[in-house]
Write a structure and sequence with these properties.
136 residues; alpha+beta; two-stranded antiparallel ribbon; 5 helices
């Protein structure tokens, strides 16, 4: 038997020496490093979603379910948005910064979506799947 896996007849826990529990929040330097990398890679959709995460502090399930019409009104991106959380079933209001609004507009443009193509309901796509998210 391998000495690393067993020590005196007992298996070593898989998470021994790992940080447990809640992880520390990202530092401002790390946030900007991620933003710059996404901008340099020209990943407009990922940049818009990342900026929305930072602005809204929503859970992942709430962010993925976010729709274009939740943040876009007419032809412009809204300065504020209200989203109903799935877990708590309470509305959460958050401000969308100018940088995030620019990223969302660029993401919509990059996805080649006109206003007629914005998913305002669960219309099936040509592949038969329903459209659900903000840019996919």
């Amino acid at each position: 038997m391998d000495a690393d896996v067993k020590t005196a007849g007992r298996a070593v826990p898989w998470n021994k020496g790992k940080l447990l529990g809640q992880k520390p929040p990202l530092k401002l330097k790390e946030i900007w490093a991620i933003r710059v990398r996404l901008q340099l890679a020209k990943q407009a959709r990922d940049l818009a979603l990342f900026n929305l995460v930072i602005d809204s502090k929503l859970r992942g399930c709430d962010l993925v379910g976010l729709r274009v019409h939740d943040v876009v009104h007419g032809s412009r991106v809204a300065a504020r948005a209200i989203v109903m959380q799935k877990k708590t079933e309470r509305p959460v209001q958050f401000e969308i910064t100018e940088q995030t609004r620019d990223a969302i507009a660029a993401g919509i443009t990059a996805a080649h979506k006109g206003h007629a193509d914005l998913p305002s309901d669960h219309r099936p796509t040509p592949g038969g799947r329903c459209r659900r998210g903000i840019f996919w």
